[in-house]
UniProtKB/TrEMBL annotation:
The protein's name in its UniProt record: Enoyl-CoA hydratase
Similarity remark: Belongs to the enoyl-CoA hydratase/isomerase family.
Record-level Gene Ontology MF annotations: catalytic activity
Matches recorded under PANTHER family: ENOYL-COA HYDRATASE, MITOCHONDRIAL (PTHR11941:SF54), ENOYL-COA HYDRATASE-RELATED (PTHR11941)
InterPro entries assigned: ClpP/crotonase-like_dom_sf, Enoyl-CoA_hyd/isom_CS, Enoyl-CoA_hydra/iso
An individual GO BP term: fatty acid beta-oxidation
Gene3D superfamilies: 2-enoyl-CoA Hydratase, Chain A, domain 1
Record-annotated membrane-spanning stretches: none
Length: 267
């Protein structure tokens, strides 16, 4: 059964602004496969409108996004081809659509921001979080790594040292720690996150939209000429080609089975 959806709506009080809402409230807005497809469609719609001045991304209720919807994982993650299709087409398709957005994107982050939530937030330009928000990508507990393009994105946004802690120690971080490493633009009281994010979107929308779009294009170009942490783009393709061979491994199955059974994993 498909769960969750992405809602796109005009951003109240902000001229030519859009709100994109991650909505899977019973699962802390964890991203289902359907939601990844809807997120891609939402940003393709936004990207086709040259008049958009700002986009605000937020989660429904008291969380931003707690990661992926693990209840769906046994249906596809243990097959290499299906796993590659999920990450390279579904997940990366949505993230790439966000990265291609020339309108500035503000992330309004409350509560849990884990895994997929960190990836989505990494595509945003301004990230504002509540003081009690928590960040991490503890997927090593589930027996699998972060996909290569997603890891490249996250390491670029967080910095390599923090990304290594997230992925290798399954470490989680406070909002204050994420601000200290440069990931968050501002940390505010929990009850002020929505208002502060909306105010930021309003300030952006009141400025010259052409300047904002050109600034984003410049910043994108500065990041793109093929290297991160010493890997050329050709090397990234080689990494991707072998990245999903773990699909049917015992560790991968055990990590997900243990999570769904609510028991400790035995690696």
């Amino acid at each position: 059964m498909e769960t969750g959806h992405i809602r796109i709506e005009p951003l109240e009080g902000v001229a030519s602004g859009w709100r994109v809402v991650l909505s899977n409230p019973g699962r802390l807005n964890a991203m289902s496969r359907a939601m990844w497809g809807e997120l891609k469609s939402a940003f393709e719609q936004i990207n086709a409108d040259a008049g958009v001045r700002c986009v605000l991304v937020e989660g429904e209720g008291g969380a931003f996004c707690a990661g992926g919807d693990i209840s769906e994982y046994p249906a596809f993650r243990f097959d290499e081809a299906a796993l590659r299709e999920f990450h390279e087409t579904e997940v990366w398709g949505a993230l790439a659509a966000m990265l291609a957005c020339d309108a500035p994107i503000v992330a309004s982050i409350a509560g849990a921001c884990m895994g997929a939530g960190v990836e989505i937030a990494s595509c945003c330009d301004i990230r504002i979080a509540g003081a009690s928000a928590r960040f991490g990508a503890p997927i090593a507990r589930l027996g699998f790594p972060m996909a290569p393009r997603e890891a490249q994105l996250v390491a670029g946004a967080l910095g390599e040292a923090v990304a290594r802690q997230m992925l290798l120690e399954a470490a989680t971080f406070s909002a204050a720690e994420m601000q200290a490493c440069g990931f968050l633009s501002r940390v505010v009281d929990n009850d002020a996150v929505a208002a502060e994010a909306l105010a930021s979107a309003g300030r952006i929308a009141a400025l010259a939209p052409q300047a904002a779009r050109l600034n984003k294009q410049t910043l994108r170009a500065l990041k793109s000429p093929s290297t991160l942490a010493g890997y050329a783009q050709a090397a990234m393709e080689d990494i991707v080609n072998s990245a999903y061979m773990y699909a049917d491994s015992a560790e991968h199955r055990e990590g997900i089975d243990a999570f769904l059974a609510k028991r400790p994993a035995n690696f």
